[in-house]
Design brief:
70 residues; alpha+beta; 2 helices
Amino acid sequence: MHEQNGGFSLAPSLGGVESLIEQPALMSFYELTTEERLQVGIKDNLIRYAVGIEDAADLIADLATALEKA
């Protein structure tokens, strides 16, 4: 999943084996208000990183690139 945007996609996991980065407040818990999310420990700036089966060196490089851009 080596792409121009740092190699990661903002997407829900549908059982794939690729690495994903997700913002739960916008995806998994979008139906809750900010207050409801905070009650269950989901802050609006929480990021979930699901590691896939790609080459570890590629994942590390992609993550470093993404963090440099953030």
